[in-house]
């Protein structure tokens, strides 16, 4: 993370690959361009851009509101809260990820792939590329994949849309091959890797943990294939200790790219400190559903996640927290607005707070489900569930040593794992915990809810909603794709189903 300021300036290197032919090389050379791309700088930029992708629009307005972590009384910015059609929000992620993070990591891969000395950097870039693509396909379904980011290398400007089934199976293959190829005998990215400083062993665990996530994602559409990949990931070695958590660290300046997007976007667009909870631009608050569950279970994470403005200070005491109901358009008075919970400015909305990408809390919850399904016999589902809770409590240390919750016993005693419960009861408990523990990573919470159906959320039925009062199953494609890449998009829609919020993607098929 020590190189972010320099790397921001180095972003100009991304345009270094020229499409000129050899005949025009001498006369058409741009004196301000760099002849060869610099993989380290470009990889760092891909990491930053991959995480800094319209967080407020995608993760709060859409995913976070649909998952009832957030709510708002407004209509235009209540697209996810009220299941409304607003392209500004649902197209943002798609429109930005391809020309930025995916294009950048593809340049890195193409530059490094033919030199055996670069085997570690090449395969780490493959792993990061898999991470980026699973995010975009999980939102939209069938997307450009095999022909994506080939404008520079192949002059291919209108990529075909691949089926999500093809994408997922190829991503899993990529993770398997890349993790297996990593070796401590060759150099890595070092400090240019802003997540792990080039640590090969940690990247292996990241790759297998992402494989575990993707493998578990197949549990509804293909349980046998899901089990195969889950077991392969476990055998490979997933993240189990906090020291191996994938975390991006940030600084408060000098440029916005140095700042945590999951904090910067919300405070810039809605939760400004100067509003003191009374006049938020988009009327955003934490949802009543979310706050009520935290309060009912005496969850100590409530004080880490939430605060209520009292004058010019946020009170994080559990007793004063109050969530705003989803699906309402009745505007509170400014004074009343301030009585509802918002994200904690000292933790969640602190621009130099780290951002967790994959942690041992998530992996232990997947392992608990695997044990529950009989796919993993190393530990009991109860033991793994409890480990996940403890990990989530301890991982709050990313906000500072005082935030780590070192004793989970009172919580686990008051909310014991239902060891004698039914499969469905246990799944609900495991994935309600997932919904709580992964707060901030709204895209992953949304994907996991679609796969499992847990926690059980009560949809709203706001007048004029476009889903008949059901929680959306995907994002629609950007309108621009219909004019720019219409033939390939039409093929995808024909294969996947109507370009609607209610269409289920491949791994979400019932």
How would you describe what is shown here?
- The chain has 510 residues and is mainly alpha-helical.
- It is 47% helix and 5% strand.
- The strands form four sheets. Strands 7-6-8 form a three-stranded antiparallel β-sheet.
- The radius of gyration is 23 Å and the shape is globular.
- The chain starts with a helix and ends in a 14-residue tail after the last helix.
In brief:
With 510 residues, the chain is mainly alpha-helical.
DSSP strand count: 9
Main sheet characteristics: 3 strands, antiparallel
State the low-pLDDT regions, or none: 1-34
Spatial ordering of strands, largest sheet? 7-6-8
Strand content: 5-15%
Please count the helical segments: 22
Question: What is the C-alpha radius of gyration, as a whole number of Å?
Answer: 23 Å
Labels describing this entry:
two-stranded antiparallel ribbon, disordered N terminus, 3-stranded antiparallel beta sheet, 22 helices, 5% strand, globular, 510 residues, mainly alpha
